[in-house]
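To: structure desk
From: M.T.
Subject: fold request, one chain
Message: Could you run this one when you get a chance? Sequence is below, nothing fancy, just the single chain.
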Amino acid sequence: MMLPFVWIKRNLTYTLRQRRSFAANNSALYDGRIYRRNVVQEEQYEEEEEDFSYMGPPEREEFETEETCDTHLIEQTDRGFRCAIDVPTVMYKYIIGKKGETRKRLESDTKTSINIPKQGVDGQIVVTGPHKAAVSSAITRIEVLVDNFRKKQQFTHFLSFPLNDPKIQEGFMRFKDDVLEQFSQDHGLDESIFQNPAKLHLTVGTLTLLDDSEVRKACEHLQDCQNFIRDITEGKPLPLQVAGIEYMNDDPAMVDVLYAKVNMTDGCDKLQVIADRLVEYFVSVGQMVKEWDRVKLHATVINTLFRKDTTVEEASGSGRQGTNEREAFDARNILKTFGAYHFGELDLNTVSLSQRYSADCTGYYASAGSISFS
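Reply: Done. Structure tokens follow.
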């Protein structure tokens, strides 16, 4: 069995004030699209030496019985075994470690040699060694480093069903105006917490893509989904109805998020099936983490996080990130008066790989890739 080790990273924190400053200084306009850079930024962190804690180096005979990696091709060569893997370039420094110590420990404990491209140079990390299981062990440990680093990052992209149809936007603006006209005196309720109508959407699932290569792979995986989606839709757009209001927590007097419900007009569950199949596929290829048994399809219309950052997008699931930074609002009157509000109907024909902190010429999130239902 693999001997356990722990990757220790210290001082991986940054303040809300730093995040706001970073957002203000890291946006750009290209070809009519506004982007807030959301790739990994090393200046966000005060890095110290990465380290491993081992229970001791494994013996050779342990390699001979250890399970080998079955997700990468390990080739036999004249000198032993070799495996090349794709790793985001931002991770090179963490695998190398301070003064090369992390790589040296990996090499020493797995009896392998690890060749890492220079920072900024495209290529693969190549692991070589005399035993197949030793190479597999080194690959697995590198992947654990990458996975642990990825878990520390905010998501960069998300699969979305756009709801920015003109009819839905018009219905949303009527809802917003009526709510503010009637209930602006209710606790915590003001214009700043309403969604941008150009960004109305359903979140299917979130992805943390660390470099351009991972974005390209995600686009390719999305294209792989087109056949099964068109089988479900029978090559036609899905007729949807956006109607009804629900909230996320148990106390309607202290609400963080209100969302609109979305259903197929014919009552079938095709949209839910597509969302669940998309998550299932992206989980299977390692680009998404499954959080729930079923995707919770909801269109956020009010989110108190917008009060402090109008560019925020919630993750899939509860949509209640950063609750310590929120000021809740009283939604009782809204729910009583607008609980069955009808925003409108649309024919949904697209699922997009949307980039966080971005906007295209329509105001919707910039798309790294998309596929159609018809």
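Reply (cont.): Residues 1-35, 41-68, 316-323 have pLDDT under 50 and may be disordered. Let me know if you need anything else for the meeting.
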